[in-house]
Automatic annotation (TrEMBL):
The lineage of its organism: Bacteria, Bacillati, Bacillota, Bacilli, Lactobacillales. It comes from Apilactobacillus apisilvae. The keyword Transmembrane helix does not apply. The keyword Cytoplasm does not apply. It comes from the Bacteria. This is 16S rRNA (Guanine(966)-N(2))-methyltransferase RsmD. The gene is rsmD.
Length: 184
């Protein structure tokens, strides 16, 4: 696993030990950034199920000002912090050890807003529609913000979720990337 492009490009990242975390493959990660970017002039990125932190680190490498990485597992948080050290830019990252629901509430209470929210929960624990609604109701997206959902091919997401419009969807093997834009 590596950082594909940008200011941290080609640096190798560590994976979370064990089998509780399923990393986003480099192929899917590269395709994801080609769909939403590929490069950015600032902004804030939220990764609600960060795992190794690879997607958020890629986002900052490609031009986001900051990324908030959330995970509830100790081994994931440890790996995220080790991978952030590789960037030598720890001030660009905010790491939270908590579950997704608590993180959304915490971020809302602290008036945090994001340009992109990335949702890649464990495939067996997917609650995408609930989380999309919570993100909208807690006002966590900036105007024009998007939510990127990574699911397996067993999950069927609706084209239009209340308050959002699906703007793109692509399948990569068993992985599906769905991108929703917040309606103004």
């Amino acid at each position: 696993m590596r950082i594909i492009s940008g200011k941290f490009g080609s640096r190798n990242l560590k994976s979370v030990p064990g089998n509780k975390t399923r990393p986003t493959t480099d192929k899917v990660k590269e395709s994801l950034f080609n769909m939403i970017g590929p490069y950015f002039n600032g902004g804030n990125f939220l990764d609600l199920f960060a795992g190794s932190g690879a997607v958020s680190i890629e986002a900052v490498s490609r031009g986001f000002d900051s990324a908030t990485l959330v995970d509830r597992q100790y081994s994931a948080i440890k790996t995220i912090n080790e991978n952030i050290k590789i960037t030598k830019d720890k001030n660009a990252f905010n790491v939270l050890k908590m579950n997704a629901e608590n993180a959304l509430t915490y971020l809302s209470e602290n008036n945090r807003k994001y340009d992109i929210v990335f949702l890649d929960p464990p495939y067996k624990d997917q609650k995408m529609i609930t989380q999309l609604n919570e993100i909208k109701n807690l006002n966590l997206l900036n105007n024009g913000g998007i939510v990127v959902c990574e699911t397996d091919d067993n999950v069927i997401l609706e084209d239009n979720v209340e308050g959002y419009k699906m703007i793109q969807q692509k399948k990569y093997g068993i992985t599906i990337i769905s991108i929703y834009k917040l309606q103004e």
